[in-house]
């Protein structure tokens, strides 16, 4: 399986996971590294034919089973959909995508009346994230103006 999580260590024997768009409940029997991913076995899967049916399916975990992150760090799904406001109070749009660039993530902010805005997720740009209010307050560096 390709691994998208930063926490593959949580896929321990007995861990519940949900497979595919119907979120079929399965339990991890075991896992081991294989190339860039993992080989994983499930308690409910007893033979190769059953395993083949699971190919190309996405494996999910429950949101409340996620590890806690240190203060000031967020999961991508928490950032997506936030309203973005400048430190001057201007509505810049909604975070519609997060690009992983290697150096730092970049938020794509979309607004119906202007082109997409690319905001690097760095301290000098991202001033505050308020999940309860659904808002992100940012400072537009020179060259980032709308």
Taking the alpha carbons of the first and last residues, their distance comes to 41 Å
Mean pLDDT: 90
The structural class is mainly beta
**How much beta, percentage-wise?**
35-45%
Number of domains: 2
Task: Compute the number of helices.
Answer: 2
> Main sheet, how many strands, which sense, barrel?
6 strands, mixed
What is CATH's topology name of the largest domain? Answer: SH3 type barrels
Q: How many strands?
A: 10
For the record, the CATH architecture of the largest domain stands as Roll
Broad CATH class of the largest domain: Mainly Beta
Helix content: under 10%
Order of helices and strands: EEEHEHEEEEEE
Looking across the biggest beta sheet, what order are the strands in?
A: 8-7-6-5-10-9
Full CATH superfamily name of the largest domain? PRC-barrel domain
- Name the poorly predicted regions: none
Radius of gyration: 19 Å
Query: What coarse outline follows from CA principal-axis ratios?
Result: elongated
In short:
With 146 residues, the chain is mainly β. It has helices at residues 48-52, 76-79; strands at residues 16-19, 24-34, 37-42, 59-60, 83-86, 91-100, 105-111, 114-120, 126-130, 135-138.
Task: Give an overview in words.
The protein contains 2 helices and 10 strands, in the order E-E-E-H-E-H-E-E-E-E-E-E. It has 146 residues and is mostly beta strands. The chain folds into 2 domains: 8-65, no CATH class; 76-138, PRC-barrel domain (SH3 type barrels). A hairpin with a 4-residue loop joins strand 1 and strand 2. 12% of the residues are buried. The model has no long low-confidence stretch (mean pLDDT 90).
């Amino acid at each position: 399986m390709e691994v998208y999580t930063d926490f593959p260590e949580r896929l321990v024997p007995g861990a519940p996971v949900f497979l595919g768009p119907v979120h079929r409940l399965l339990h991890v029997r075991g896992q081991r590294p294989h190339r860039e991913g993992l080989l994983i076995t499930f308690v409910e899967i007893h033979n190769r034919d059953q395993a083949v049916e699971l190919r190309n399916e996405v494996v999910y975990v429950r949101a409340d089973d996620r590890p806690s992150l240190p203060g000031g760090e967020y999961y991508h799904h928490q950032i997506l959909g936030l309203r973005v406001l400048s430190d001057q109070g201007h509505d810049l749009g909604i975070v519609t995508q997060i690009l992983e660039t290697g150096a730092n993530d970049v938020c794509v902010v979309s607004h119906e009346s202007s082109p997409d805005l690319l905001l690097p997720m760095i301290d000098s740009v991202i001033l505050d994230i308020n999940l309860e209010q659904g808002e992100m307050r940012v400072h537009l560096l020179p060259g980032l103006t709308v």
